[in-house]
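Order emerges. One example.
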Amino acid sequence: MRKNIFFLLMFLSMPLFTTMAQERFSIKLTVDSAIASQPQQVYLYSQVEREMQLHDSISIDSVHRQGTLHGTVPYEYNVNLMFSRRGPAIVPVVVKNGDEMKIHVGDEDEGFSIRYIDKVEGSPSTLEYVRYYQQMDSISDLNRKVYRQMQRYGITEQEADSLGKIRNKLEMAKERLSLHYANTGKSPYGVLGAAARVYGSHRLNPSMHGYTEKEVDQMMHSVLKRFRYYPPIQAFVNDSVLGRNYMSAESFAINSMLWKRYSRRFFDETEDSIVRPLKVGDYMNVLHLNDYRGQYLYVDFWASWCEPCLQQMPNIKMAAQMFPEDLVVVLVSMDKESKQWWKTVKELDLRSHPKDEHPYEIQNLRAFNDNTGKMRPEVKRLDIRTIPHNYLVDRTGRIIAKNISGSLLIDRMKELLKKEGKQ
């Protein structure tokens, strides 16, 4: 009798176990050997409203390059993979409970803060979502390049107006892309993110973003009709009717991926910082700057991910070209990974050109040691909290200016050389 009761209980419990298994998703992750060359943790997390949830983590190294992570989401939603040491900071994935997907993270894009993946099985929503953001990022990148051109020293008003019109067209292209994806996408999570952008832009400034009232209305009806059973869709109808278990439309933003920037959880802060007052010699020791005595020296701390830094690069490069005999430019990158740093250096052509008809010198260095992954002590001693951070050194090794832009550098060099009788 007891035996029969045991088997009856087992039989009755099988649907329960099956249901519990279906309430989780799984991600089988394979990592390229170059990323896995350093032992590290890979974390799987999500952000609902402003609350972080850590679902799972695995350890990888050069031998164990595979692992499976599990988690649960209230409905189809975005989760993120984050590498603690080497590799991308964020890999976005769109999942729903019951999904069993396979993902390969390769090394070809190492250095980017966000990695969009194409090698994925079991999640069409992920591919649709990331391809939309790839297009958005591509337009944004082009827009940033145009803006840098607008910041060039000596640009005419006519050139600035022409570039401004190009920027406006690019901004409009992003808005139309969001509207198109909101109307045609098949993934409710991704579609809601695009729709939130359109809806919010139209409400905040209808004339600037170029959406008509009819277009926004049609988009809203289309989203509600296609995904009427997706719980967060109700956020578009009336936020006030939502309970605590629902997310507002504001949650559907790629900004959630930037959480790592604000968290100190995975950063090594065991080393004591130098608190004594800085001396000129501290700056000199960073790069053996005494080698450049007799010339003016402009040292700029920057990073490939720092947009204000990149905006100044055309003018800094122009300064090196305008004063090749009197000015040496040294760029010190604060990038932790070398690949993206060097990719940016090549894209912006921030290198010396000794064989040109008019040769000039730009030195490129990194603040981080490739072997240890830690900031070099001589740079750490400077306690640089924000970038861009720069200073100008005169011919005797004396710091004569700090934190001046590339355009101000050109003006300052003209004044200095004029006093010396060189201009």
